[in-house]
Amino acid sequence: MDESAVDEDFVAFLTTAADARATAVLDSYPQHLTELRDMGRARAAARSLRTLVSVHVHTAAERHHDDALLEPAQRLADALAEEQFDDGLWDQGAVHSPPDTAFSIVDLNIVYGLLAEDDHRTTRKLRATVERILRKAGPALATGGVHTANHRWLVCSALSRIHERWPDRSYARRVDDWLAEGIDQLPGGEYSERSPTYSAVVTNPALLTLARHYGRADLYARVRANLDATLYVTEPNGEVESVHSRRQDQNTLRYVPEFWLQYRELAIRDGDGRLAAMAALLRERGAGQTFGETPLGDRLAEVLDRPELARRLPAVTSVPTDFEHHDPACRLVRVRRGDRSATVFGGTDFPELHAISSGLSSNPTFFKMRNGAAVLDSLRLSPQFFSLGHFRSEDLVREGDGWRLRAEVRAGFHQPLPRRHRREDGAYPLTDDGRFWSAMDFPHREKEYRELRTEVLVRERPGGRWELSFDVSRSEVPLALELCFRRGGRLTGEGLEPVAGQPDTYQLVHGEATYTVGEDRIVFGPGNGKGGKQPPVVEAGERYTWMGGSLTPDGIRVLITGRSPLTYRLTLS
Predict the structure, then answer these.
(1) For residue 526, is the peptide bond before it cis, meaning its omega torsion is within 30 degrees of 0?
(2) Once rounded to an integer, what is the mean pLDDT over residues 197-209?
(3) For 69, how many CA atoms within 13 A lie in the half-sphere containing its CB?
(4) Boundary residue ending a domain (182, 197, 213)
(5) How far apart are CA 232 and CA 330, in angstroms?
(6) What pLDDT, in 10s, does the model give residues 542-563?
(7) Contact 138, 171 (CB under 8 A)
(8) d(CA 268, CA 481)
(9) Closest C-alpha to 359, from 146, 95, 147, 541
(10) In 10 A of CB 109, how many CB atoms?
(11) Positive/negative CA dihedral, 159, 164, 168, 174
(12) Which residues span the domain enclosing 452?
């Protein structure tokens, strides 16, 4: 590469971080050896080895060709080889797991490439050990299965680089078989798991590897589409909105720096000023930001593996900061006005599948907003209607100047069985009535239904204000709106009353209240009274409570209660 094209500041920044990270690894790697030998956890050991090797081969690193790195690196490699099963796999939360093994093989592919490129005499034994591991893993990845959608592409990326070095027709056939299933990308750019961080941070690097090392340049477009989508779910502070996810991140915070090198790669490849702006912004924010699961110092290995990442960025344009973005495939609306942002979500899987399970979108939060540091992490609605739990919208549609959320739920009282289905012995099949199971042969009974209809119209108003108009009808039941603010702020308002037995929980009985963090605040209300017919209770639903589960979010909670039929307007500003 032409040295004049190298972004020296970027490389120096990563080098400093990698030097510090390597020092930390030297202190912690014995623990990773213990975890590997006692519990079969290979990923931390492989990643630690990758970090040490990146510093050892990098000419600008403080520890370049430092012999003090060799013994720890060799011990890590030896342990990985010793703990590798005869079939080439490791355990990592699952027995003899091909996809979990692939995570470590991705790192070890980079390790081998860096050692081969450096070709230093002191690391020949280390290189031979890593080669032995990679060769042993190849057949297992070429025959083993996966758990989730993104695992397919992870296995393909790991296997493609082994195939590139030591070609085997069975490896290529396996990669081709997985790819022939088609990339599971939705029209808006998210993948089928709708996980903007947990899934995409696995899928995007895998597809980029296949584009570079398996001749699938068409996959760059897939990653580009996903990075475009991520621009619109990124908060001003680098958090990534994931309420719409079908994976673990639907309830957790994750951060855009996980995408840093992806943005950099596509910006350089395409000359895209927007993607370059995101990459430049992440560099500008420096080492103080949260980098998620991947420490900053671990990134140097990827840049050494792909030197084109060290090129200077193209001219930046701007990251989107003023928009209203609708992703119909996820039933998600994102609105940002500078440091203010909001999310409207109506796309859980529950209305269609009537199930709450891993791999399904079930978070009942339908609105979120922030004003600078003041963050409303969750707004939910919980009617006490036959223990069916929270309001989860069946759709999200544009209506006038707002967005309409809607759901209709019903529960039945069962009539006697028709004569032809009765049994003298009373031994009826165990069946599901939609709420619970009983030996009552529910499908053959006529039912008398009770219904509850909920509509919410969400509208943005001038000056950063939001109006949410609620219309709950067809049954008379208590209900509670639950607002959950992020910890770290102060809640004030004359109409606030503590809720007995519920820590950090208040009921807004009348007037407005304010949540303040520094100079930023969110004003909300009004309260809607109190009383025995509208208790401050959030009912999660029998699917949770039967198993002792909870849907109580962490934070400072404010309940606004009422009783249907109800029309009510909540304002937030």
Answers:
(1) yes
(2) 95
(3) 26
(4) 182
(5) 13
(6) 888 888 888 999 999 999 999 9
(7) yes
(8) 47
(9) 147
(10) 25
(11) positive
(12) 364-572
Mean pLDDT value across the chain: 96
Map tokens 């350089």 to a residue: 268
* Three-state secondary structure call for residue 82: helix
Among 407, 399, 400, 336, CA closest to 366: 407
SS3 sequence of 17-68: HHHHHHHHHHHHHHHHHHHHHHHCCCHHHHHHHHHHHHHHHCCCCCCCCCHH
DSSP state of 240: B
pLDDT tens profile 251-278? 888 899 999 999 999 999 999 999 999 9
Closest C-alpha to 277, from 295, 264, 290, 294: 264
Report if residue 547 sits inside a domain. Answer: yes
- Give the span between the Cα atoms of 237 and 517, in whole angstroms: 15
Amino acid occupying residue 282? L
How far, CA to CA in Å, does 83 sit from each of 33, 38, 90, 529? 10, 10, 7, 63
> Residue 198: inside a domain, yes or no?
no
For residue 184, list its beta bridge partners: none
pLDDT per residue as tens digits for the range 124-175:
999 999 999 999 999 999 999 999 999 999 999 999 999 999 999 999 999 9
The full length of the chain comes to: 573
Neighbouring residues of 203: CB distance < 8 A, sequence distance ≥ 6: 150, 153, 154, 191, 226
Give the Cα separation of 222 and 156 in Å (integer). Answer: 16
- Residue position matching structure tokens 């939609």: 434
Query: Could you tell me the pTM of the whole model?
Result: 0.95
Last residue within a domain, chosen from 182, 205, 233: 182
Q: Is residue 455 part of a domain?
A: yes
pLDDT digits (tens, 9 = 90+) for 59-106: 999 999 999 999 999 999 999 999 999 999 998 777 899 999 999 999
Is residue 29 assigned to a domain? yes
Q: Total structural domains in the chain?
A: 2
